[in-house]
Amino acid sequence: MNKELITSAAQYWANFFSNPKYSDKMNGGLDGFDSILATFSRLSLNESIQILPEQIENFKKSIEDYLEKELLKEKTPIILSTDWYPEFPLSSFLVENNLPGTYFPNKTIMFIYKDRYSVQNLGKEFSFYPK
Question: Which domain holds residue 15?
Fold first, then answer.
């Protein structure tokens, strides 16, 4: 089992809480005034939420535990994704740890295999492991 891959994949999602980002890319490809409104909505929601470091660590652990179990099976890829909001199983990890889904980019999908993962936003690959 590739523990480094699992840790890296979980950290990818956890980083959105510790280092929030706002851009057209984060807004599912919206641009112009629509993107400004989406960013304002995210900022307004996120500003009122207090997130504790323990919540982020527990969220990360939830993803790692899930990936460890799933990677033992022969079925790949494992998919963690968002459309306009995080989809299952990512959404269940958020609920489990009392975290909002508004920190994640829209229209993003992570394909996880036994030896690698790639992340695409609007169909364009922009992050992968190993680098």
Answer: 3-129
